[in-house]
Amino acid sequence: MTRHLLRLIWNRKRQNFLLTVEIFFSFLTLFGVVLIAMQYANNARHPVGYQIARVWSIGVDRKEPAGDPAVRARHRETYDQLVRALGDMPEIEVVAAGFTGPYSNSNWGSGTDLTGGRNVNFGVNSVTDGYRDLFDIPIAEGRWFSREDDAATWKPVVINRRLAHQIFGEGNAVGQIIPEAPDRDDPDPASAAKRLSKRIVGVIDEFRQDGELSAPQNYLFYRMRLDSADPEANLPERIFVRLRPGTPASFEESLVKRAMAVAGSWSFEVEAVEDMRTDKLRSYTTPLMVVGTIAGFLLLMVALGLTGVVWQSVTQRIREFGLRRAKGATIPNVRVQVLSEIALMTSLAVVAAVILLAQVPLLPLPRDLTGIPASVFMASIVVTVIAIYVLTLACGWQPSRLATRIQPAEALHYE
What we know:
The protein is an alpha+beta fold. The chain has 13 helices and 10 strands.
């Protein structure tokens, strides 16, 4: 039966080839949309690791480069005064400062070469001690930064479980020093000791800075001290405040006035983190909707083309279907033949597309693509295969009904 159907398809190879190519590219386009959607759905199942209710983010423009050590020291002192002044306002529960925060477009990435030649990449943030309380970040092991780290001769860091597992496996990470490999270009022992000074004081479950739809990643927090005498210490780029329940939006004006009274010429941009979340989610979903719209139009074109081609094929094969009916073929037999031809062409396109997609894990692709779990990748293929078969068979259903209405007498009178 399959050999006979292949022969029938080959006899009309020109139009069937074009149709198969359309199905092939429709499959790839639909697969891309399904893969992105399923990846987002998979990411949304995991916790983000923080709470943003009633939290405002204050972007700071210092109006002056901070390259000179004296300028950095003056800026750090101003930040310290700002945090204290805002914390004294009765409408504010908690104040913290940091390089970046949830749903911010500012990102800091880093990596380290571990002993043994392994390389580990992670997101980085530098924050003050109040950051954990402000965003209500759960501590899984150890503790968050505190005043007991003031006298430390090493850099206290907090990492998430993902990074801890990647570096130390199943072992306890608290109290461990991140074991970096020596730098061949810098054999100075003092420099090596400085690099080996990151000691883990706590482990958190998760921290996905870009929100629910972003992929889970390794993450590391450095401690930021606004009273530090180190001229190389990091300066914050944002101040975060959590408001008391019932604080109106009009409080923003009072907040900015207090900040400007302390900082002088500095300018401030206040934004609710909830609004930042909306913008960040829109940045993820907008490309998906655009690609989805393109895929929808392509599938519509394929559906219309397939329906028209099959319809035309049925009208041109009146004698064939009439003779089959005259020889005893039932209505279901004729319908199955038409739908089987469509399914066979679809299978040829699907097999070619799946073989092509099977090469994707072997390609040197960006980390955003290589980080997609195999289960999500395979599930996207399965969903796309089902969707393509449903579409093509649905397009052939009405023409197959037309074929079943052909009477044997029509074949005998056909000229």
